[in-house]
Amino acid sequence: MEASVARSGTEGNAKALCGGTRTDGLPAFFVPLVNHNYLFFMKTRFSLLSILIIAVSIISFVSCIVRNTVNDPHFDEKGYLIIDSSDSIVPQVGVESVKFFIEESGSMNGFFRKSVPNRFKKDVWEICSYFSRVAPNMTILTNNGTIGSTIPMKNFQTRMNTGSCISAASTKVPVMIESILSSIDTDKGEVAVLISDMKYSPVGQAAPAVLLSQYSTDLSYIFGKYNKALCLVCATSEYMNNIGKSICDNSPYYYFIIGNERQVAIIRDCISTHLTNAGSFVDNIESGFDYGKIKYSFGRPNRCSQFEDQPTFEQYEEADESDTCKIRLNVDIAPYRWILTDENTFRDSFKANALYGSQVEIGKINIEVQNVTNRILKRTATAMVELKLVNMATDSEVIEWALDLPDTQVDRFQPFFNALNEGDVTKSYSIEDFIHGMFYGGVVNKELEPNYILVTKKG
Is 193 strand, coil or helix? Predict the structure, then answer.
């Protein structure tokens, strides 16, 4: 009895110490702790929920911003560029085979003098050696312009250096060109390169003067018939007389490249780079190219900010002319004619205007060119253009910009025009007619489509 009372007393003391027992079985001592944790949990829950609601609201607000307030058809209302499914994407391809052809004729003899070094021999051999993996042979064009013997490149080197290329033949350029075009398979990635002074001299043929007057037309027919991309690269070299003395230190000759446009562009860049490094390069000109869309990116803007990765800039701020809104546009110009890397030529070619009444100005232009990357002849060329937008007439504006390529600009070729006869080694007899023929017959470069930049005060 006493033990039972003692045990009961002990339990009573424990209950009193713990504050008694609740009907849910928990000691009353734990109730404040449970309530405190519960309240902390609920407060934290409501805080996180509040933050989530605020974040969702902000995102919803931002995503609902109408940046394209002028309803320009090139952007959706949020400022995303509308991509045209028909926009061409030019695939990256390599060169599978290069077929070199060389003209041997009387007008070329000054480049081939026996045992006499000149830039022609040096440059031709360096270029042929560079492509040796895909170009093991050289084909000699015959007296009537058709394809003659094909010899290993090493044998050609000996033939060129020892004067064995000296010839009395006349030049029949149309026959040469058609022979080459009919011998290459561009579907297999083959590219042809003709090395020639391009002097058309139909001596010995019936009515040579009449043939010369029809030269451009004949060439345009041939080019139109095969419909391939074409590129003419002009170079210069010393021209030697028959005793090995230079009578002209910058006599022109050419590398004429034929094939599909991507492969032609690769060969163009490699040959032009070699010639530039040697101090022999003049210019290149091309036709039959569809360059696709212009590649571009943006640098850091001033008084606005780029919206995601879009050609859209928001939070436009009006300011004085010295600190106005500036968009820095980086244009990839490596795919195009090399003359476009001349700042004045690029400035003349670059067009920009505002579509909805504002004022856009073309500011500074810087051009960076690199022809060798990691010891490989890989050309990069970027024009960095500063576009200034002032006096925005509405809440949004669209800048339209484009490149008007200098397809037919021949300023650097012109010193070699208007030769009176084939014997003028300072000029290229009938080369202007050849260039005209390149741009007839439907073999022309496709005009580049314009691009668009949206600028808005919203955001």
Answer: strand
Q: Can you list the domains of the chain with their CATH numbers? A: 2-63 (no CATH), 97-292+415-438 (no CATH), 296-408+449-456 (2.60.40)
This model's pTM is above 0.85: no
SS (H, E, C) 298-325: ECCCECCEECCCCCEEECCCCCCHHHCE
Q: Is 212 exposed, middle or buried (0-12, 13-18, 19+ CB in 10 A)?
A: middle
pLDDT digits (tens, 9 = 90+) for 215-244: 999 999 999 999 999 999 999 999 999 999
Residue type for 434, please? F
How far apart, in whole angstroms, are the C-alpha atoms of residue 189 and residue 263?
A: 7
Which tokens go with 288? 């039959």
Please report, rounded to a whole number, the percentage of residues in the chain having pLDDT higher than 90: 66
* CA 38 from centroid of its chain's CA atoms: 64
Position 318, amino acid: E
Task: At 355, list the tokens.
Answer: 């579509």
Tell me what the mean pLDDT of segment 310-333 comes to. 91
pLDDT tens for residues 104-157?
999 999 999 999 999 999 999 999 999 999 999 999 987 666 777 999 999 999
The C-alpha R_g of the chain, in whole angstroms, comes to 37
Residue 252 to residue 237: CA distance in whole angstroms: 7
Task: Give the CA-trace dihedral at 194, 197, 201, 205, to 10 degrees.
Answer: -30
Q: In sequence order, what DSSP letters do the residues of 99-145 get, joined into one string?
A: EEEEE--GGGGGGS-TT---HHHHHHHHHHHHTTTT--EEEEE-TTS
CB 176 within 8 A of CB 196: yes
Q: Is the pLDDT of residue 171 over 50?
A: yes
**Which pLDDT tens digit goes with each residue over 247-278?**
999 999 999 999 999 999 999 999 999 999 99
Pairing of strands 281-287, 359-370: unpaired
Does residue 211 surpass a pLDDT of 90? no
Kindly write down the DSSP assignment for every residue of 29-42, as one continuous string. GGHHHHHHHHHHHH
Region at 227 (left for phi over 0; alpha for psi -120 to 50; beta for the rest): left
